Amino acid sequence: MSAIFFLIGCSVFIALIFLAAFFWANKTGQHDDTYTPSIRMLFDDEVENAEAEEGQDRAT
Amino acid sequence: MALETKASRNTRCFHCGDAVLHEVYETDGHTFCCLGCQSVYRILSGNNMHQYYRYNNHPGKKKAEHSERYEYLDEAAIADKLIDFKNDGLTVVTFYIPAIHCSSCIWLLEHLYKLNPAIVRSQTDFMKKHVNITIKHQELSIRGLVELLDDLGYAPKITLQDVVKAGRKFSQKGLIAKIAVAGFCFGNSMMLSFPEYFGMAAFEAKYSMFFGWMNFAFSLPVLLYSGRDYFTSAWQSLRHRRLNLDVPLALGIAVLFIRTGWEVFTGSGPGFADTLCGLVFFLLVGRWVQQRTYHHISFERDYRSYFPVAVTRIIEDNRKPVPLADIRVGDRLLVRNGEIVPADAILLKGDANIDFSFVTGESEPVSKVLGEIIYAGGRQLGGAIELEVVKAVSQSYLTQLWNNDAFKPYERKFRTFSNVVSRYFTVALLTIAISAMAYWFFQGDPVKAWGAFTAVLIIGCPCALALSGPFTLSAALSIFDRNHFYIKNTAAIEQLAAIDCLVFDKTGTISSPNASRIHFDGELTPTELAMVVAVAQNSSHPLSRELVNWAGVVTPMGAVDFREVTGKGIEATVSGRNVRLGSGMFVGITDTTSGTARGSRVYVAIDGEVRGCFVATQPWRPQLKAVIDSLGNDYALNLISGDHDKDREELRAVFPGTSELLFNRLPIEKLEYIRSLQAQGGAVCMFGDGLNDAGALKQANLGVAVSDDINNFSPGCDAVLDGRSFGLLPRFFGFAKDVRKVIHMSFGISLVYNAVGLSFAVMGTMSPLFAAILMPLSTVTIIGFTTVATRIFATKRQLTHNVS
């Protein structure tokens, strides 16, 4: 049953890691702007040959 | 007039989406409404940035009439104030760009490097409308960057009162860290408390000691770090001999901790560590909800954000931009068309035609003659003028207003409901706790006396009480927000509910500055109208544009020999006939004072013969009558304006008979008027829009700035109302009262919880499990109730639909 001491130690330790991760994210400003990244990720990647793509757009 | 045809205008500008009236601008098969839109398109298409137009239809915004001049950014002293960071090669700067409104804007602003390789990186914060840009300053100056943005239609707003940097001072990071720690401890101590609550067998008892010590350890950071603010706040309020809600909260937290420590040390029980952590966690979440802002409007603006950053000073024919603060008495200044006169000054040269509407409320521009004093804040319309400064900027007539007592920096304290209740609550709680202790003590049971005393303070801890206000008000705040009524903070909503007297400004507040009503006094044949339109099309003057808009579709005609005399009028030859549009003097009328109708006039002369004039008036907001009628029953309504009383008759018919209508008032008189209403016991809400209302807005119990473009300047206030939502005012006031009702009800509910808990506590029979269940249960009930109730009331008032 003394395993319980070990397990509680582990769980608290892991929780502490998450707490530290949260502090890091907060400190580096990852919660400052929670809206713009959701739009930014929807932008298409840069297309190398933009001219060709433009032509395709017109064709469709 | 019969000519008022609004024929179908299917063609929209590819860039900005405005109706294209005359298809003159065309590139790549796309039509544009003006040269500005077309040139932005050309820049973007020339740089392979078509994607801008792919994410949204018509993502652009029409460029401002007068592009600002940015020479002053070459002055290192000015530019250095703007930048965030600078090293040998790189400069980082953050701009506030009001034009940001869609995903295309984000895309374009984050791909600026494609337009200029000297731009290393740019990142947009959409909600705040900020762009953070890193440039190589050896290749691109700040001025070059700003001009590039301006060319694209994304001109940054640069003002003396740097809103960007001021906004950064306020941060919730500390509070969020405290919530995180409290949440972490809450979760862990709850896990460690569960075995105790479920009951442990005899052979497991050795663990209970261990769990107890662990719990105690978890409650330490909550007490010392997360909950610290409650102790400092309680201490301060005791020192000022006032009892706020933080006193019983701090007392509850302290007692929870002491009793937990005592039970753990003596081994007499499991303690209340999980309740302690949970309590602090919920309280902090409530505080966070209350402080959260849903908008990024600055409510603290003063004249500094209205004035330009720099002005052009003339020293021996040498024109040089200087920061406003360096202006001295005796300096010669050059003020161009559309620029603001920064200090009280004497006119030395040029035709001054000053628009004081924002400063004094006068709706029409004023002409000044040489040698006359021009007060700061007016905007020059027409050609450039030269001035000699007679008073320093900070001593000017306009800025003096800010030296008034009403502007002394102080934290405006609203008497919120919870402040009122908390005094009685604290006294009652302490009375119950002490009498319970005394009772058991005289019964000869000191252990139970201690138990009852602590239990009362624990269970009576007004957690739910403290949360009902923040949760209700923040729910209401987001509903007001959605209806374009932006309120500074939650306390202002309670203030809104307490208002009984409304005072309106006239120009720009109850009249709508953007729209205008045009009618023509005189006679014109359709062909002649077409000729007038042909001339007006060539001008970018707002009145010309409105005239073209008003005329609708007419037979296109060509105008030649176009000539524009700034501030006077325009002329051209159409089909061999000379057409002149402009001021009375321009068309040859000497007596322009005839007629009492208000509004700006554009006279028309064809071949030297005056045919009549267009009169453009600022119409009342369409919902004005309805708003006044429905507010008139419950509120005292008054009007105070800086303008002449030419509208008195018209407004008399709109306002109820009991209201005062005051005209020709100076800004300081407006402030005094509010003060006198308050002296009569009124809770006054002032509606205004300009700098002339700034004093009154500040003095009023609640100052509401009415603005048709919330990104434009509005004076410091408690709330900003978008002109579009003016018609919703009666509903807003009604809803604020509903919100107050919800707070009262949720106070009632939490008091019931407290009463139930206390009845157990005074018996000295409260178990930790009981506290651990009751506290979160009451909290969840309150959060649920306030959210749902606020929403129901909002639906009832029809405020949940999106108004656009």
Q: Based on DSSP secondary structure assignment, what is the total number of beta strands of chain B?
A: 28
The Rg value of chain A, from CA coordinates, equals 24 Å
Determine the CATH topology of the domain at 479-513 and 620-737 in chain B: Rossmann fold
Helical amount among residues of chain A, as a percent range? Answer: 55-70%
What's the shape of chain A? Answer: elongated
Structural class of chain B: alpha+beta
Quote the beta fraction of chain A: under 5%
Distance from N terminus to C terminus of chain A (CA atoms, Å) equals 70 Å
- The chain-level mean pLDDT of chain B equals 81
Largest sheet features of chain A: none
- Give the CATH H-level superfamily of the domain at 479-513 and 620-737 in chain B: HAD superfamily/HAD-like
Separation of the first and last Cα atoms of chain B = 31 Å
Query: Based on the structure given, which CATH architecture of the domain at 479-513 and 620-737 in chain B is correct?
Result: 3-Layer(aba) Sandwich
- Name the helicity range of chain B: 40-55%
Helix and strand run of chain A = HHH
Assign the CATH class of the domain at 479-513 and 620-737 in chain B.
Alpha Beta
Give the total of beta strands of chain A: 0
Give the amount of beta strand of chain B, in percent.
Answer: 15-25%
Radius of gyration of chain B: 33 Å
